[in-house]
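Chain entry —
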Amino acid sequence: MKKLLLIGTIGLILQGCSGMKSIPMTQKTKDAAQQTRTYNLVLQDEVRPAVNLSNSTSGAAAGGLVGALITTAIDSSINEDRAIGAFGVAAPLLNNTLDLDFRKLIVEEFNPVLISEFNAKDTKERAETKYLDEDKIKAQISTLKDGEAALYLYTHYQFFDNFKVVLFETNATLYVAKEGKVSVSKPDYRNSFTYISDTVGNGGMDSIRLWNDENAALYRTTVNTALSKIKEMLQHDIKVAQQESCLTGTKYTRYNALGEFNSVGKITAREGKRIQIRDNNGSLINLADNLLVKELPKECKA
């Protein structure tokens, strides 16, 4: 049981934070995708707790080490105990939000965009729960006819920084059949969209108490806000030939399964203490300005 918890915690987050380069939407792709099949995946039933792994020396090193890191974590009794302990800390909030149907909330936010922007005809009332490996995706897209496309969305969410913040991330990948050709290794569009909440409390049980107060009002509001902002980022990203502001470049802090790490990007929008960043890998991130590390004005001139 302990090993399964760690596999879920590490594997899911690293899938979304592997630093994979985005592929921008083009007018040619939009014109070719006349009708789109969709697969909106949420594997987890509840938010995953914050787990600090004993071998997490550098979050940025996650890229090519997923398998080795999972193996190391599973074999470590320290990490197993930490995973179990983290679920224990989160238990009051998890028990108080059993009625929160994340899979239903996400389709209520995303479906209008899938229909209006991708001409989706097969949207569901709840998100999917079955993971599709590359072979299954390959089999599905091989049946696409000219003018048809397939959009795969995968969303995960987890606490970080000892329960002080919760992160939501959606990864989108689009395949379009053109002249009867489509390849699982060559998607036509791909990007990720991340929302990192404001910092809550001093960590541990103090943060869980604040997230859980008044029937978990703050946590519930954060879930709804995160899904709304991710929807907006997706809508923004698929617009073709738009001018995107660059207020300044920045080094900033973000998270993956190995903990926190620094990344670099351009601030494209600011609303109060919240900012939106176009990371140098092309992904979009919405976060609080306390996660900014250093201004890099020259990034706007690049």
